[in-house]
Amino acid sequence: MRSSDYSRAPRWESFVVLAWATASAVLVGNVFQQALPQPVQAFGPALVPHLSRRCDLIQRRVSSDLEDVDVDVDNDAILGSNNIPRRLRIQGRGIPTRKDPIQPLDSMTYESDLIKTWEQDPSRQKGFDWEIEKLRRYFAGLRMRDDGVWVRQPSFFDFLVSKSRSDPGNAPRPVGLVDVVKLVLTNSLTSVGLGPALGMAAVPNAVIQKYEGSFFSFIKGVLGGDLQTLAGGPLFLLLNKYFEVYGPIFNLSFGPKSFLVVSDPVMARHVLRETSPDQYCKGMLAEILDPIMGKGLIPADPATWKVRRRAIVPSFHKRWLNRMITLFAERAEILADDLQPKSAKGQVVDMEERFCSVTLDIIGKAVFNYDFGSVTDESPIIKAVYRVLREAEHRSSSFIPYWNLPYADQWMGGQVEFRKDMTMLDDILADLINKAVSTRREASIEELEKRENEDDPSLLRFLVGMRGEDLSSMVLRDDLMTMLIAGHETTAAMLTWTLFELSRGDPGLLKEVQAEVRTVLKGKERPDYDDIVAMKKLRYSLIEALRLYPEPPLLIRRARTEDNLPAGSSDLKSGVKVLRGTDMFISTWNLHRSPDLWENPEVFDPTRWDRPFNNAGIPGWSGYNPDKVSGLYPSENAADFAFLPFGGGQRKCVGDQFAMMEATVTMALMIKKYDFDFAIPAEDVGMKTGATIHTMNGLMMRARQVNENEPVQSAEGYWEMQHLKRGLNANGRPYTTEEEAVWQTSERLSHKKEEEKPNGEGGCPMHKM
Ligand code: HEM
C-alpha cells in the first residue's frame, strides 16, 4: 500500500493500524524500560520512529473523531495540565474502595513516573510523541479525575500500561521464575551431595515426611492448605524441635519447596540490620497478605516501603503518643467497669477475649478515630474484623494458596464470607478517609505535631494533613488497614500472656508488681508518661511475656540478591551462601528460648532484664547488656539481636512505643483494681498459633475486686533476691568491690531475716502463716 492510499483507507483499518503501532511501540518501551535510562523510558512510544509519519497521519484522523466523545466533566475543577483533552477526563474524586473498577494509578509504578515526566514539562506536551501518548492513555483506560488524579479503568488494551515498580536507584528486581527454577535445581543438587561444588554450605536438611496424625486429618490438612496440621502442631514448635536437633541454621523442606530457618543472633542481625531493606523483602508474606493489607507497611515491597515509612513515622510523634495515654486509660477504665458486675457475681471471664476487645477499641480510635465499642457491644463490623483477622492468620500458616483458586470468593464458603467482610471494612475505611480528606487542612510535619485536633487526634487525620502526601492511591487505605491488624492482636497477646504468667508464677513476683503499680498510681486518676516510666517492674513483665511468646513467632524474608550469612554459632565457618529467591524464617521463638542466649530460658523471670548475660561460645555476639536499655523496654540492640520483640533494623515495628505504653496502662489499671484467679487449671489454657500466639481454650479467670488504696500485702524483696542469690548486687550488677559485696549481702540478708521473724515488725504476712 502506497502512503497516499491512506487518505482513502476505511476508518476501521486506520484504527487497527494505529492501535497496533501504538501497542508495539509501548510494548517495546515497556519491555525494555528497566534497562533504559529514565529519559528514554519516558519516550517509550517514540521507540519506533519509522512509523511516525504514518501514525501521524492516521492519528490526526482518529483523534479528531475521538474529540466528539462526550464526557461530562467540570473543566474548571481540573487541576494540572490544560493540554489534557476532554476525552481523557472523567468525573470523580476521593479514594475508591477496592471493589471499585476504577482505581487511582499506583503512584509507585513506572507508569505513574511516566505521566509525571510529561507533566513536569508542559512545553513537551506537543508534537507527535505527545499525540501518541494521549492515544495510548485513551486506549489503556487512563483518565484524569476532577481532582487531577490519574485513574485507570478496565480496558481491553490494559497491556499498554506498565505496572512494574519504578526503580529507585539500584534496587534489586523482584524474584522471578528463573530464580525459582535455579533455586530448586541448586537445592536438588545440594541434597544429593553436590552442594560444595556449587559453593553451597552443608546446611542440615530437616524434611517433614513423617505425619503422625490420622489419614483423614492429613487429607483435610492438604485440602485446606493447613501447614499446622501437616507439621503436626504450631509450625514454630516444630521448628523448635528441629533447632534442638540441627542447630542454629537448617533447611526445612516440603517436597521441592524449602525454607532456610535461622535461629542465631549474629545471622539475624546480618539479615535485619546489616543489609539494606532492598536486599530482603517480605516474600510470601506479602503475597499472602496482599488481599487484606495490599501494599501496607508490613508486607510492602522495598520501593513502596521506603516512601510510606517516611510518611508514617512522623505521625507517631511524642506529643501524639502522650495524648494517646489518656485514650489508653479511658478504654482500660471501661474494661475495668465492665468487669465489676461479673466480679461481684463471681463469674468467669475470658481475659484473652477482653484484652482483644480493649485493644481493638484503642486501635480503632487511634488509627482512624472510629469507635468499635467492642468492650461493651457486639456488632457485625466487629465480627467482620475478627473473621478477617482469622482468615489472615489461616493464610499465613497455609502453604497452598487456596484463596487464589479460580473464583474462590464465589464458591468457597469461607472465601465468600471473607469477600463480604472485606467489602464492609473497605467501605467503612473509604468513608472515613473521604471524610478526613474533605476536611483536610494541609500543613508541614512540624505544624501538624503542634496541632491540637481535639475531636480527632487519629493517625488518619495526621497523614491526610501532611503536605505533599499522596492521598489518591490505595496506599493510605492499605497502611491504615495494616495498622489496625498489626496493632491489635499483638498487644492483646502480650497482655494475655503477661497476666497468665504473672498469675501462675511465684506469688511474690505478682505482689511486687502490684505493689509498684499501686504505689506509683496512688491518689492519681490516670497514669501519665512519667508513671509509665516509673512502673519498670510491670514493663519488664510485659516484655518478658514477649520473650516467651513472641508475636509473631517467625519473621519471614525472601532474599532479592545473593548473600552470605555469617557463621554465628554454627559450624559452617565460611558462612552460608544464600541464593536469590531463598525464603527464610527467622525464628524469634527459637532465639528467645535458646539456652545459649538466656539463663533458664523457659522460666518467666522479668528480673533477668536487670542482669547482664554473655556467652563467649557464640562468636560475634556481644550478649545482653542492661546498660544499653534506653527506652521503655530492653530492645534488640541491648540483646544484640537475641531478642526481637518488635523486629529489628529498618523494618522494625513503628508501633513499639505505642504498644508498650498501651499495655502498661491497661495492665496497670487491671491489677490495680483486681486480683485474678484461674478458673481452669493453668496447664489447660493451652496454646495455638496463627500470626500471633493465642491460648487454646481462652484465659478463663475470675476477677476479685480489691481496695486499690490499700497497700499490697508486701512481698518486697522478691526482685532484689533474684539478683542477690546469684551473687550480684541489688541492681543485678556484679559488685564493684569486695567491701560492697560483704556490706550489701549482709545488709540485705539481715533485712530479709528481720522480715521473716514471727510477728516481726513490717514482716510479710504471707510469710507469717
Ligand atoms: C505488642 C505489640 C506489637 C508487637 C509484638 C509487634 C511486633 C512487630 C514486629 C515483630 C514487626 C516486624 C515484622 C518483620 O520484621 O517482619 C512489626 C512491624 C510493624 N508493626 Fe508492630 N508490633 C506491635 C504493635 C504494633 C502497633 C500498635 C502498631 C501500629 C499502631 C504496629 C505497626 C507495625 C507496622 C506498621 C510494622 C511494619 C514496619 C515496617 O516494615 O516498616 N505494631 N511489629
UniProtKB/TrEMBL annotation:
Q: Which organism is it from?
A: Phaeodactylum tricornutum (strain CCAP 1055/1)
Q: Determine if Methyltransferase is one of this entry's keywords.
A: no
| Iron as UniProt keyword | yes
**Top-rank lineage group of the source organism:** Eukaryota
Q: Which SUPFAM superfamilies match?
A: Cytochrome P450 (SSF48264)
Name the coenzymes or cofactors required.
heme
A single GO molecular function term of this UniProt record: monooxygenase activity
Q: Which UniProt keywords apply?
A: Heme, Iron, Metal-binding, Monooxygenase, Oxidoreductase
Q: Which family does it belong to?
A: Belongs to the cytochrome P450 family.
> What is this protein identified as?
Lutein deficient 1-like protein
Annotated region Disordered: the residues are 746-769
Which positions in this protein are listed as binding heme?
C653
Organism lineage reads as: Eukaryota, Sar, Stramenopiles, Ochrophyta, Bacillariophyta
InterPro entries reported in the protein's UniProt record: Cyt_P450, Cyt_P450_CS, Cyt_P450_E_grp-IV, Cyt_P450_sf, Cytochrome_P450_Monoox
Q: State the Pfam families in the record.
A: p450
Q: Which gene encodes it?
A: LUT1-2
Which segments show compositional bias classed as Basic and acidic residues?
Answer: 748-759
